[in-house]
Write a structure and sequence with these properties.
The protein is of the alpha/beta class and about 325 residues long. Helices cover about 30% and strands about 20% of the residues.
Amino acid sequence: MKKQIITFLTLLLVACSIMATPVALPSATVVIPTPTLVPPTARPTPTLMPYEQYTIDHLRQRTYGGGKIEVLEKLGETDLYTSYSIRYPSDGLNIYGFANIPKGQGPFPVIVSVHGYAPSGEYNVFDPQADFADYFAENGFIVLHPGLRNHPPSDSGDNILRVGMSEDVLNLIAVLKDQSNLPAELAGVNPGLMGLWGFSLGGEIALRVLTVSPDIKATVLYSSMSGDTELNSRQLYGITNDDQFQQDFQVPLEMMSSISPLYYYHLITSPVQLHNGMDDSTAPISWAVETCNFLQSAGVSVQCVYYPDVGHVFNRSNFEKLQVSALEFYKLHLSP
């Protein structure tokens, strides 16, 4: 394992980039300490070591799912799709959100959407008026958008280093894949054609999910945080001063290489399309270039689209370009 990681991190190739407008970008030069991973066979007892439950290896070994998705009420309806509030279980927590479901018999491919950072209590988990969710539902995709733990009315739970939220997504994927307890409204879902959308902090969560689940067939990252978990925590705390990110620093630094998705990109099977503004101060363009380089070096099929003079949240014209590009990408990889 160590040999694979060293080989992966030393192969910094120039990522394949699709530019919104042709712009020359320098290759990223990054020095990352070689991680030291402890293989499961070297552990003296089956008892979890401190913080081991947050590692990628542990997340890959545990099981997910159980319970069912419940449709609570209709939130809205158009000629093309209907929005519902939903609830599902995740490791004993109730997670709420919404689903946009196209009209017709299906089966429909499904996109699981992972939202970005918001202070607890300030995020509307039932808001279906997200442009991307409407757009993809209008074009024949079921969109499930969970409002992850610590965002009421979803229950609160452990979320050190965003691992808890990652488990919420993995549990949703498992429930969808099972199909045995899906409500009638989701009878048209095709669990074999499942995509992932990650915005900002949700991009880090998506990258972690991809290292664990082989069930995602296409992933779009929009202004994504890095795959380096410690780097993200420091950046997010500096921007928000939110205590949840300060708590991340109790995790020993030597554990970070076992927790960060960055060191496990070679496990990703989903193709990835990444969109990032070149003036982004939250998720800097250098992070996007590094992510593209590392993913490509790990053998992941990746497309990277960089937008000049664009910050963290895209304006309407650039977001429309992102949507069109993402739709083509999803159609390519999520078609029957």
